Amino acid sequence: MIITHSLEFETVVDENSEAFEVIQNMPEEYVKAMLEQMLKDLVAPELEPVLAKLNENGSWAILRLAE
After folding, report:
1. What is the dihedral of CA 40, 29, 4, 42, to 10 degrees?
2. Considering only CA atoms, which of 47, 44, 36, 40 is closest in space to residue 11?
3. Over the stretch 31-43, which tens digit does the pLDDT of each residue have?
4. Is the model's pLDDT at 61 over the cut of 90?
């Protein structure tokens, strides 16, 4: 059995930044997809060692990143 968890993040963009000027003119779905991919790319490598440590003695369940 696989149980999928949901963990939400928020990105707070400084309204005075150049990034805000660019982002505000993009479709929201595109911005969300872009930020989610960036988050995966940056956070996933850092989580792998933590998950490996948590799973060392896993007798009934293994925690992993979903694709």
Report:
1. 10
2. 36
3. 999 999 998 899 9
4. no
Q: Which two tokens stand for residue 49?
A: 């060692």
Contacts of 63 (CB under 8 A, 6+ apart): 51, 54, 55
Tell me the DSSP string of 24-67: TTS-HHHHHHHHHHHHHHHHHHHHHHHHHHHHTT-SS-------
Cα gap 8→45, rounded to integer Å: 18
pTM for the predicted model, two decimal places:
0.68
Distance CA 15, CA 30 (A): 19
Torsion of CA 28, 31, 37, 39, to 10 degrees: -100
On the CB side of 42, CA atoms within 13 Å amount to 6
